[in-house]
Amino acid sequence: MMKNNNINGCTKKGEKQQLESNYHVIHKLPPGDSPYVRAKYAQLVEKDPEGAIVLFWKAINAGDRVDSALKDMAVVMKQQDRAEEAIEAIRSFRDRCSKQAQESLDNVLIDLYKKCGKLEEQIELLKQKLRMIYQGEAFNGKPTKTARSHGRKFQVTIKQETSRILGNLGWAYMQQSNYAAAEVVYRKAQQIDPDANKACNLCMCLLKQARYIEARSVLQDVLQGKISGSDDLKSKTRAEELCKELESFVSLGYTFPSPQLNLEDAFVDGLDQLINQYAPFRSRRLPIFEEISPCRDQLAC
Predict the structure, then answer these.
(1) What residues are paired with 144 via a beta bridge?
(2) HSE (CB half, 13 Å, CA atoms) of 193?
(3) What gap in Å lies between CA 84 and CA 238, rounded to an integer?
């Protein structure tokens, strides 16, 4: 009888452990009962962002999974419209994080700067990321990295990352109404890894400079499905709207002031020369950043 009780006890204990394991998997919670685990529980299960932020702070101060705690806390703060606070938290505590976490923290910072409208800081950090690619420091020295989007994992190459960064840089210049600089950056991004979204942004830059023939040519590539993402309904709709806007400007004979060069344009000019060095991959560093010593001094990054 005693033996059967022991067996039943072990069985119930095993079932409990299995249920707990399944619970953590379903809610994507890490195992254990540390401050970080409790913070994730508050965030994902209890849907208590303010409580989660308090627990993330405790995790950071306790040295519990600091890399993840700082990044997750900043994301939750952004969702709570506390982006400024999140920026200060990353600046203050990122020195406690590992070297491997710095790149992802930079990505979070870029999103926070964008939400706060801190364009200068956003541009500077994007240029810093380009410099890291040139120096071979991106992806912690590896040719690819694993990224996540909506719970799915996928591989990103340095080539794709460079195009993405240039796209973000172009958008930041557009927010400053620096369409000449944004145009050059978008053109370089399209040379590396073209897509319909950046093509539409490039078209807008050309429209703002009253260069209608070039703008129409860029739009045709999207409408005719010549580049990646052209079949996306959102991109196609935007291209059609830009086409109507273009025809309206042409019919009215509308013109825009000529863009003026500034220090940021000097950076873009250096980038223009730099991208022209593009060649097939020969090393882990992106080849467009190789053999550019003659124009390195022109880069403002």
Answers:
(1) 157
(2) 14
(3) 32
